[in-house]
Amino acid sequence: MKDLPRLRVLIVEDDVVDRLACRRAFAADRHHQFELLEAESGQQGLDIAHRERPDCILLDYHLPDLTGLEFLARLGADRAAHGIPVMMLTGADSAAVAAEAMRRGARDYLVKDLDGHYLELLPNAIDRMLREQRLIEEKHQAEAKFRSLVEQIQAITYIAGLGQADGVQYISPQIRMLGFSPSEWIAQPRLHAARLHAEDRERAQAAIRASRLEGAPLDIAYRMLTRDERMLWFRDRAEVVRDDEGTPLFLQGLMVDISASKQAEAALRQSQDELRRLAAHQEKIKEHERKRIAQEIHDELGGLLTGIKAYISVAMERAASDGQSAVPLLAETSTLAQTAIETVRRVITDLRPSVLDQLGVWAALEWYADQIAQRTGLRCDVRIAPRAQDTELDPERSTMLFRIVQEALTNVVRHAEASTVTISAERDGDTLALEVRDNGKGIDTDRLLNRESWGILGMHERTRRFAGELKIQGVPGQGTSLQLRLPLNDEHAD
Question: 341: burial class by Cβ within 10 Å (0-12, 13-18, 19+)?
Fold first, then answer.
């Protein structure tokens, strides 16, 4: 008996014989250990329930001082005894009484038949009722914990039915951050749609409708207006809750206020845009300065060196015409002057090749590739498709393309260990596609991720200025490819 579950039952019954019959029925049960408390009147039963808090009450409807319904009403008003499950004992012709008792708070009922068969059912009926009571209490505790958790987090939690486009079944108190109470929100199914920002309404409603009608997960960000017309950003995420057999039950969602992060994101984006505009402005100034310096070197220093070499040549020719041998230093000086002239030309080319301004970017690319081939021995193959060749680019886009190819070829010469590089360009609609591909060892992935690789970062920044897309991919032992896609419509420019 010690291992059997112990149940304390209060029997409220004025008939001594019926109480004795109940005691015998409980004593005969081998699956439970019942501790019985007895009361002969309704008031005595209420006093014992208040004082002893039994597990359950077995209540006869007809009592000398109270009816069963009056007993239930007073029991419900007693805070100490409130919640004790009650099983009502009724007569065979009292179905209406039993139904009213259940409505007033009785958990279950048994019909007292004349043959006493109800006594055989009594122990199991009490056990079943208590098990149901435990399930109800556990459910209430779980709901209380869930509600407490939900009401503490800084987000709006909601439950929506499946198969319906509007309205929710539950909304947490945090909905007050929009200026509305939960009851208002639930009572007005269209309130959510009405408070959506006009620019986000169609997109958000379509996603929400698809999620609720089709039972699909939801993950969307949108803006909402509070009651006082302030704007807040929300990340709305919802998942379908299913039972143990996988049947969809409802949609449970969470609306997180992301206004602060959106403001920070907007500030960061503005800062990045400003930095890019500044970088573009500096790049533009730098190109103008390169062009100016190259022009001054060409006009002044180049002219001086050419003049010096001319004077030396004249001096050597006069000496030869007079039958005299030229001073050896003059010949060496002439050679040095020619070397200086070639060096000046190379510096001018590195600063700003004149062919870029005079003949355009495509001729400049062919010329520069030929210069690289002569200087390094790298085989450079330039393939410009006819549609690309016919495309006239503005000076800034031309400079951007030339500098990216220049940087790419510099990297090939320094790092790729390649023998061949191919430069190709073609036009696809309003997009220009440029590729630089080598057959070298393949760029290291770590170098692509290295934020201190200024050459690669510079190419990306140049591309972004014109809303272009730049991809660099390397395959070990098979080479590296640089792919640039540049939109040509003006609206894509920075």
Answer: middle
- Residue-level pLDDT at 491: 43
Q: Beta strand pairing status for 33-39 and 56-60?
A: unpaired
Rounded to whole angstroms, how far apart are CA atoms 266 and 254?
Answer: 23
Tens digit of each residue's pLDDT (9 = 90 or more) over 335-388: 888 888 888 877 777 776 777 777 888 988 998 899 889 889 999 999 999 999
Tokens linked to 111: 């019909």
Give the residue from 132, 147, 162 where a domain finishes.
147
Beta-strand pair 6-12/33-39: parallel
CATH at 438: 3.30.565.10
Find the domain containing 288 and state its range: 263-352
User: Can you tell me whether residue 215 is helix, strand or coil?
Assistant: coil
> Count of alpha carbons within 13 Å of 60, Cβ hemisphere only?
22
Q: Which two tokens stand for residue 108?
A: 């279950």
CA 454/CA 473 separation, integer angstroms: 17
| First-to-last C-alpha distance (Å) of the chain | 86
Q: Name the domain count of the chain.
A: 4
Residues 328 and 413 in one domain: no
Residue among 80, 35, 77 nearest 58 (CA)? 35
Strand intervals (E) in 44-150: 56-60, 86-91, 108-112
Q: CATH number for the domain including 132? A: 3.40.50.2300
CA atoms of 443 and 225, how far apart (whole Å): 50
Inter-axis angle of helices 395-411 and 454-465, nearest 10: 160
- CATH code at position 165: 3.30.450.20
Q: Which helix (H) or strand (E) holds 156?
A: strand 155-160
Closest residue by Cα to residue 26 from 121, 155, 132 = 121
Token pair in block for residue 370: 């030929």
Q: What are 124-158's pLDDT values in tens digits?
A: 888 888 888 888 888 878 777 777 766 667 789 89
Query: Is the Cβ–Cβ distance between 444 and 426 less than 8 Å?
Result: no
Mean pLDDT over 173-201 rounds to 92
DSSP 5: P
Q: How far, in Å, CA of 34 to CA of 220, rounded?
A: 57
Strand, coil or helix: 29: coil
Query: Which tokens go with 80?
Result: 């100490």
Place of tokens 């009785």: 106
> What is the enclosing helix (H) or strand (E) of 432?
strand 431-438
Which H helix or E strand runs over 28? helix 16-28
Query: With 0-12 CB in 10 A as exposed, 13-18 as middle and 19+ as buried, what is 323?
Result: exposed
DSSP string across 143-185: HHHHHHHHHHSSEEEEEE-TT-SS--SEE-GGGGGGT--HHHH
Q: How far apart are CA 329 and CA 333, in angstroms?
A: 6
> Which residue carries 């000496």 as its tokens?
319
